[in-house]
């Protein structure tokens, strides 16, 4: 974590790129009101203004130049986003005005905020837990109703409450076992069968949450779809038609696409990351070979493979080999037979996949409704987990795996009839692992890793 003091008053532009109609500058910390007040003229305006009410004021530079008419809203600690005194200053969105206001605030004693520092302070001041802080970043990144809904649910505390409930059960069990140590284990406060039952239940609840990761990740990031095939079959044309714009170069020169190209689209609210790839063929050109290696990498990473052929040409061994390669990866697979508009189109000449073969034309758009529906069906096949809550971050998955492994060790110790003192370290480890998810147990490294990914001003 950077070496900066939480006692500082921090300043940052919270709104997007200037020039714009308006811009928002946020100031948080003990001196927030004072830093702004110094620039509003002789009479106190902000310190006497009511909290959470907009106040119009003139903003002057330290040399007394009238810079802008601004709107100020102050929030008094602890009732603010960060839990500290906060001022939101809304000014006109010219680069010059923004720079001069920021400069004036810094000269008066403020410090530029680090990325995510406002939300970090909110976390440290108990305004939100780590899951909720991560959800703030997700909200800013969201681009479909589904991943926005997911971020909102996590911001609302659904997952936090669920994880905390699981952790509390471990804490309660641990307290009873500790009592036994105090009483020299002459008395049993927690029957071992009861403890085993609790641990088994927790094991299955953690397992369900761990396996919900795939669903959560797909909603948050979108399904990675690799479009693969020989050169010239129409892969780039397929991408362009789905995107409804000429994003990728298309030509009848085989080997047009040399590198992978990724674009994101939303179909009916489901997010797909489409990867157009370099066509596969035997080639001695080292650059083309590098491109084809990237195609193979995309195939390995993909959640769904779209294996495409040119239906107006006879099937070749290369087409058949690629289909076999796709099938060997054991992933969801769609077979696309393109160029339906051509008179020589003959789909029956190809190796087919009975349930997922679609004939279409990238030129006329025929067959695209069916193709888009097939993509949606693939997204739908990842059903939401039954318990309602789910995870979407590797960090959460790793902590849950660590928690489950500690619980399994405790179960093993129970089967061996070990005494309370040997069970306690495993229960503590499980508790800590769950606490890492919500941030009740945390390290500087974890915090740095999470908050450095935020934008400045959030
Ligand atoms: N008639 C017809 N031509 C098509 C269709 N789809 C693509 N083409 C043409 O086929 C040629 C190759 O299209 P691309 O989209 O560049 O093919 P590609 O698979 O990306 O090719 P590479 O990048 O070389 O691997 C171009 O001339 C396209 O206009 C189609 O549905 N019908
Ligand atoms: Mg191409």
Structure description:
Helix 4 (130-141) packs antiparallel against helix 5, helix 7 packs antiparallel against helix 13 and helix 13 runs antiparallel to helix 14. The chain has helices spanning 32-37, 95-107, 117-124, 130-141, 145-155, 158-182, 192-211, 213-221, 235-243, 286-301, 317-328, 368-380, 394-415, 420-438, 444-451, and strands at 10-13, 20-28, 55-60, 66-75, 86-93, 111-112, 223-229, 261-267, 270-276, 304-310, 333-338, 357-359. It contains 15 helices and twelve strands. It folds into three domains: 10-127, Probable tRNA modification gtpase trme, domain 1 (Gyrase A, domain 2, 2-Layer Sandwich), CATH 3.30.1360; 133-212 and 389-439, Four Helix Bundle (Hemerythrin (Met), subunit A) (Up-down Bundle); 223-380, Rossmann fold. With 458 residues, it is an alpha/beta fold. The structure holds guanosine-5'-triphosphate (GTP) and magnesium ion. Magnesium ion is lined by residues 235-236, 248, 256-257, 276.
Features:
458 residues; alpha/beta; Gyrase A, domain 2; Rossmann fold; six-stranded mixed β-sheet; 15 helices; 12 strands; binds magnesium ion
Radius of gyration: 29 Å
Q: What is the level 1 CATH name of the largest domain?
A: Alpha Beta
What is the beta-strand fraction?
15-25%
Count the E strands: 12
Given the helix and strand composition, which structural class is it?
alpha/beta
């Amino acid at each position: 974590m950077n070496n900066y003091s939480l006692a500082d008053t921090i300043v940052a532009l919270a709104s997007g790129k200037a020039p714009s109609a308006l811009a928002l500058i946020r100031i948080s910390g003990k001196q927030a009101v004072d830093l702004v007040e110094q620039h509003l003229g002789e009479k106190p305006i902000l310190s006497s203004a009511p909290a959470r009410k907009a106040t119009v004021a003139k903003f002057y530079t330290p040399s007394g130049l009238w810079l802008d008419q601004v709107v100020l809203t102050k929030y008094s600690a602890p009732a603010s986003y960060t839990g500290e005194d906060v001022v939101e200053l809304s000014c006109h969105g010219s680069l010059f005005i923004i720079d001069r206001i920021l400069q004036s605030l810094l000269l008066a004693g403020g410090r530029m905020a680090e990325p995510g520092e406002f939300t970090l302070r909110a976390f440290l001041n108990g305004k939100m837990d780590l899951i909720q802080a991560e959800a703030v970043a997700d909200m800013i990144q969201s681009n479909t109703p589904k991943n926005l809904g997911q971020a909102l649910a996590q911001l609302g505390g659904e997952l936090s409450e669920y994880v905390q409930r699981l952790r509390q059960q471990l804490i309660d069990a641990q307290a009873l076992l500790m009592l036994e140590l105090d009483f020299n284990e002459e008395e049993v406060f927690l029957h071992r069968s009861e403890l085993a039952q609790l641990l088994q239940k927790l094991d299955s609840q953690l397992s369900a949450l761990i396996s919900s990761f795939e669903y959560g990740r797909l909603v948050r990031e979108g399904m990675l779809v690799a479009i693969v095939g020989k050169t010239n079959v129409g892969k780039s044309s397929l991408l362009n038609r789905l995107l409804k714009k000429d994003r990728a170069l298309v030509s009848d020169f085989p080997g047009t696409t040399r590198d992978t190209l990724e674009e994101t689209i939303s179909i009916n609210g489901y997010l797909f990351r489409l990867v157009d790839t370099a066509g596969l063929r035997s080639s001695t050109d080292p650059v083309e070979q590098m491109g084809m290696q990237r195609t193979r990498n995309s195939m390995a990473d993909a959640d769904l493979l779209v294996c495409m052929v040119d239906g107006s040409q006879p099937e070749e061994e290369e087409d058949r080999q690629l289909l076999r390669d796709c099938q060997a990866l054991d992933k969801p697979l769609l077979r696309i037979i393109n160029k339906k508009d051509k008179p020589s189109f003959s789909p029956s000449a190809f190796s087919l996949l009975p349930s997922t073969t679609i004939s279409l034309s990238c030129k006329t758009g025929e067959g695209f409704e069916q193709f888009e529906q097939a993509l949606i069906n693939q997204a739908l096949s990842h059903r939401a987990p039954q318990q309602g809550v789910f995870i979407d971050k590797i960090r959460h998955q790793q902590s849950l795996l660590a928690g489950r492994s500690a619980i399994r060790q405790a179960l093993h110790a129970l089967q061996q009839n070990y005494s309370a003192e040997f069970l306690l370290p495993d229960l503590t480890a499980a508790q800590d692992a769950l606490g890492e998810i919500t941030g009740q147990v945390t390290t500087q490294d974890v915090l740095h890793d999470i908050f450095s990914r935020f934008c400045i001003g959030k």
